[in-house]
Structures are given as C-alpha cells and as structure tokens.
Design brief:
Blueprint lengths: L1 E5 L8 H12 L4 E3 L8 E8 L2 E8 L3 E4 L1 H6 L4 E8 L3 E5 L2 E2 L6 E6 L4 E5 L6 E9 L23 H15 L5 H22 L8 H18 L8 H7 L4 H8 L4 H17 L9 H7 L5 H12 L3 H9 L4 H8 L11
Antiparallel strand pairs: 1-3, 2-5, 3-4, 4-11, 5-10, 6-9, 6-11, 7-8, 7-10
Helix pairs in contact: 3-4, 3-5, 4-5, 6-7, 8-9, 8-12
C-alpha cells in the first residue's frame, strides 16, 4: 500500500523542517535549503514493490547537497531514476552538470556526492522516483554511472516508462501486495531496458527483458489508439515492425485481439459511468472507442459485464457509485495486470 505524508498537516512555519527531516530519514541523508521556508509546500508518498520502491514528491523550489559525510551516515546503494514534472531541476554528479530538466528523466547514484537545484522562480517540483538497488540492476558494474546527471528523454521506451510510473502513482493504491511484487518485476525490466537503450546496449540485455519492454511499448500504442477503427492486430504488428505471429507470441494466452477488445469495453464502461456524458448516445460512446457495430458491442458488453450498456448506465448513474466505477475502469495500461 501507499504511505503518504503531507505538509498540510504541519504548521506552516514548520513545514520545511518537516520536509528536510522526512527526506533525510525515509529516503537518504541530505542537506536541503530553500528561500520559501515561510510558505513551504510538500507532499511525499511511497509504495513498496519488493526489492524496488517508488516515491512521489511534490515540493517548493529547493537546492540540496549530499556530501561524503551524508553518504557515510546512510547509503541505500541505489540508482534513482527520477521523472521530473512541472518545475525544472538540475543535478551535478561525477563531474557532470545535467542542466535544467523538466518533463524528462534523470539518473543519480546514492553512493556518490550529489548537488541538485530547482528553478527558484518556478512552481512546485513534481517527481516520481524509482529506487533501484544497484545489486538488482543487471547492467554490469558501474555501467549505469555513464548515465548519471544526464538528461534522459521521455520518448520511445522513455514514454513507456513515464506512463508506467504515472499510472502506478495514480492507481497503485488499489493493488494488492502480490500485484505490487509483480509490478516491481515489471518496473525493473522496463528500467533495465530503458537504461540499456540509452547506453546503446539494448541487444546485450536478456531476451525476457527485451520482450517485456516491447510488450509494454505495444500496449501503450494500443491504449493511445483505441478509438481508431483501423486498429487491428496486423496494424499493431506493422507499426512495431514485427510479424503477426510474433505479436501473438508476445501476448501469450491473453491474445492481442482480446486485449484490444477488453480495453475498448473498459473505456466504454468508464464513459457510461460518467455523469457529464449522460446525454451522449450509447452508440456514440462505443464508436468513440473503436466499436462501430452496435449489435456486436451490445453483445460483447453484456457478455463481459452481465448487463446491457443501457442497463449498466441506468444502474450506475442512479446508485451513487459512478466515481468508484470510473476509477476502477481507467487504469492506464502500461500496467500488465488489473489491480483489484
């Protein structure tokens, strides 16, 4: 489960000290300074994924320093892959200066001195941090250090990684412990493939990691094109330059056609539960998500959920649990499994 802490629960004048102490205790020892202490804002969250941890942070502009003394006080021996959003931040480590980064990734090594600074004139920094023990990252000794304090792109596998972390942040609280362990394995595979790609060494990773990375990339492509009536397994295979047989092998027992159909039905079900779409015709919702045949849609929906689309809409919108239904149906799918 997620553990969360908010500066809103602390008196305004004590929030910065609370943030500094929480980061140094729960993440790693570090010196933090700010010129916003009088109106500091911060929220912190974390979820345990087995060997890996994901932390979320939102905080007012700061600058920080982690010295050899801090490292001696506490070192989790991790690489930290951070997705930065909203405000810009830069990192200086191993003689490199990343420059200001916003809406991109940066890697840091907890065992090496580090200085970070955000844009002091900007708004709050939002960050999702994947904490990877060095012993778990199968890239070879020190190879990931070549990526430290460099801007890493949010394209290709980076887009898949960003979507995965964002979806985990938004929906991970609903996952059971065994599902979080599975998500931890997915996170490690994706991070390994992404970092290997940046090193120009993706071919050197295991076939399982490459297959997992390709599968997640395919799922993101499908998710972004569900409304396209021409989205077929062949179109998906052609876009990713693989054979249709290879695509079906990638999905295994789940089946790519079944995955597309299920995701379209889930999107329709979510829209049917939205009060603001009450006036939209049911068939318009179906077409919106690539299901143009009303008879086929109605039959598939009833088979999946036990009600016709109209019965479902009347039940949900009249019973007061539409928000819960919508939330449960809109888990963005780089996640490979449903979270109950």
């Amino acid at each position: 489960m997620w553990t969360r802490a908010s500066g809103r629960e602390v008196p305004v004048g004590e929030r910065f000290d609370w943030f500094t102490e929480t980061v140094s205790t729960d993440l790693l020892p570090v010196e933090i300074k700010t010129d916003r202490a009088s109106d500091f804002h911060a929220d912190i969250g974390a979820v345990d994924l087995g060997a890996l941890t994901v932390s979320t942070l939102e905080f007012s502009p700061v600058w920080s320093r982690r010295t050899p003394a801090h490292i001696r006080r506490g070192d989790p021996e991790q690489y930290q892959l951070t997705l930065l959003q909203n405000n810009a931040m830069k990192a200086c480590q191993l003689g490199r200066d990343s420059g200001l980064i916003v809406d991109g990734f940066i890697v840091t090594n907890t065992s090496v001195p580090l200085e970070c600074e955000t844009d002091r004139d900007g708004g709050p920094v939002r960050a999702i941090v994947l904490q990877i023990p060095r012993s778990e990252l199968p890239l070879g000794a020190g190879r990931a250090d070549r990526l430290v304090a460099r801007r890493l792109p949010r394209t290709g596998l980076g887009a898949v990684m960003a979507d995965f972390l964002t979806s985990l942040r938004d929906n991970g609280a609903d996952c059971r412990s065994e599902e979080r362990l599975a998500l931890g394995r997915v996170a490690l595979d994706l991070a390994t493939a992404y970092l290997a790609e940046q090193l120009g060494a993706l071919e050197g990773t295991s076939p399982e990691i490459r297959a997992r990375a390709l599968l997640e990339r395919v799922k993101v492509f499908i998710e972004r094109n569900l409304g396209d009536l021409d989205l077929t397994p062949q179109a998906v295979a052609d876009h990713h330059h693989i054979s249709l047989r290879g695509l079906y092998a990638l999905f295994g027992d789940e089946g790519v056609a079944a995955f597309i159909r299920t995701r379209r039905l889930e999107r329709c079900r979510a829209d049917l539960a939205r009060p603001e779409l009450r006036a939209m015709p049911i068939q318009a919702i179906a077409v919106r998500w690539g299901l143009s045949n009303a008879t086929v849609f109605g039959r598939a929906f009833r088979q999946a959920y036990g009600l016709t689309p109209g019965e479902y809409r009347r039940l949900v919108l009249g019973s007061g649990f539409a928000r819960a239904v919508e939330r449960s149906c809109t888990l963005r799918r780089p996640l490979p499994l449903e979270c109950a």
